[in-house]
């Protein structure tokens, strides 16, 4: 018998602020966290705005030396601390192994950029090798282990924009099958010029507003952030009287390798991931879909096809929204942060809006939510689709 997996801790940082209350209050109100980039000069690029975290105040670290830490570690550790504190699990961590499962596309890319600049300015022999260490994606996970004195294993997923969802899904599977009783999982990425320039070269970013599923959409907007959840086997959580926020009920993935950057247009590979997650969850009625919704020319019709193919006749009636116009596309952090926002929609019985949506696209025949609505949300599908044909979907449910 497969074990049930529940969520007992949440940590989140986005352009809307630090912590779940700040993020949810602004998501619900339809506020935009998108503004002019301040961390580098964006004037030479087609797009000049993004979802940066600008009010981040760190809590003093207990076991790490904070002078040389990359911004990625700082955001990740902060979100992990918030999730662990809410789960009230520190006493358990001292004597039991846990799985740390994280998704990222950039790792410590800001440190990588600095190393490159130092090589150009000072030469290879004088550039700081410590920056290369901080750049590597597994180093942020090691820092989390050190800061919270964790025991167990860690996994890093870096398969484009599905990374965060895959990390959550792997943690789910590890508890479901009995490998662990507890896992810390999620995703993170920072705003970096390297990534900004890359998406600019692809002409994938909007020079104006991000408009998912809108006929006049012209690209995505990048953001930064981190989302962490503490997952537990149900009986384990009940025995220690943990506060349960919701249940993770299904996970599906697929890989089609159709193209380096363009999604497979029929949506069938993405539909396979949705179908796997839905079947794993026992084919529940889906009340809301938190879409990948990037607002690019090719993603939105593909995702529409995938949803309609996987969920059948009722799919066109299910409320759908994308929160990326408010906080940006968090890349490796997107799947985890959006799973948390999906959980908020269940907890607060509210459908998040798709801001900037004005003109329906006939190719995107979904029930797009323009403004926040009160709704009896019990089960949510959250989609994540990445470059290279990486597809992932998770299903979250109200805990009963």
Helix content: 25-40%
Strand content: 15-25%
Number of strands: 16
Topology order in helix (H) and strand (E) letters: EEHEEHHEHHHEHEHEHEHEHEHHEEEEE
Shape: globular
Tell me the Rg in angstroms.
20 Å
Tell me the span between the first and last alpha carbons.
18 Å
Q: What is the name of the CATH architecture?
A: 3-Layer(aba) Sandwich
Number of helices: 13
Major sheet attributes: 12 strands, mixed
CATH C-level label: Alpha Beta
What is the mean predicted local confidence, pLDDT?
Answer: 96
What is CATH's topology name?
Peroxisomal Thiolase, Chain A, domain 1
Low confidence ranges = none
* Number of structural units classed as domains: 1
Can you lay out the helices and strands and say which pair or pack?
Elements: E1 5-14, E2 17-18, H1 20-29, E3 35-36, E4 49-50, H2 71-87, H3 90-93, E5 98-103, H4 109-122, H5 129-135, H6 137-148, E6 152-157, H7 163-176, E7 182-189, H8 193-201, E8 225-233, H9 234-239, E9 246-255, H10 268-280, E10 288-290, H11 299-311, E11 319-321, H12 324-327, H13 334-347, E12 350-351, E13 367-368, E14 373-374, E15 379-386, E16 390-397
